[in-house]
Structure formats: structure tokens, C-alpha cells
Design a protein that fits this description.
Layout lengths: L1 E6 L2 E4 L4 E9 L6 E7 L6 E7 L5 E3 L7 E6 L4 E6 L8 E11 L2 E7 L3 E6 L1
Parallel strand pairs: 2-11
Antiparallel strand pairs: 1-3, 3-8, 4-5, 4-9, 5-6, 7-8, 9-10, 9-11
Length: about 120
């Protein structure tokens, strides 16, 4: 089992920045892909970005390319999501995920509890 705990969400004005953190614990030696998904009210959960745990390949949804950056610290078993130039449409609950597959098609094994990001206009 892998446990994922997110932090760093909050309220920010449009154009602002936030950094989300996801700390993994448990069987971290099994980590292969880590990523972030988000779910806005009344909408389905959607992919945001993913990163390979070994190596540095990344993938981003078109809606966040150029604004969001995923990074990781393998020694700390932590993945980050730096979000810049935030827009009201980025408002959602953001979920950290761990899984397998590819950075273009993540099969999620584990989810974090989610952290709320609210962007005001």
C-alpha cells in the first residue's frame, strides 16, 4: 500500500500562484508514475499532469501547459505541482495519484484525499 497526503491548497486571486505538495509513504519502492488530477464541481475528475518516478519524463493537459509544472524529490518521496497564472477555471479539488501505465495514460492505483484550490476572479 502507498499512502498519499496532499497539502498546499487554498484561495488565490486570478493570476496568482500556488504550490501543491504530495508526500508518499508506505511501499514507496513500488512507485512508478505520480501525477495530479482535479475535479471541479459538477464535472468529472480530469488528468492534469504526470511524471515518471524514475527519470524525468512529464506530460501535461493542454489546459495547464506553460502554467503548471510538476516536479519530484525522490529522496523525500514527494511530488510537487507549481501552479502559476491561475485562472478561475482552475478551481477544483486537486488529487495526487500514484499508478502505472504511461505518462499519457496513467492507471491510478492510489489516490490522495484531495486539496481544494479556489481561484477568484
Amino acid at each position: 500500500q502507498v499512502q498519499l497526503v496532499e497539502s498546499g491548497g487554498g484561495l488565490v486571486q486570478a493570476g496568482g500562484s500556488l504550490r501543491l505538495t504530495c508526500a508518499a509513504s508506505g511501499r514507496t519502492n513500488t512507485l512508478y508514475l505520480m501525477g495530479w488530477f482535479r475535479q471541479a464541481p459538477g464535472k468529472e475528475r480530469e488528468f492534469v499532469t504526470a511524471i515518471r518516478w524514475v527519470g524525468s519524463s512529464t506530460n501535461y493537459a493542454d489546459s495547464v501547459k506553460g502554467r503548471f509544472t510538476i516536479s519530484k524529490d525522490n529522496a523525500k518521496n514527494t511530488v510537487y505541482l507549481q501552479m502559476n497564472s491561475l485562472k478561475p477555471e482552475d478551481t477544483a479539488v486537486y488529487y495526487c495519484a500514484a499508478g502505472f501505465g504511461s505518462i499519457w495514460n496513467v492507471k491510478v492505483n492510489y489516490w490522495g484525499q484531495g486539496t481544494q484550490v479556489t481561484v477568484s476572479s
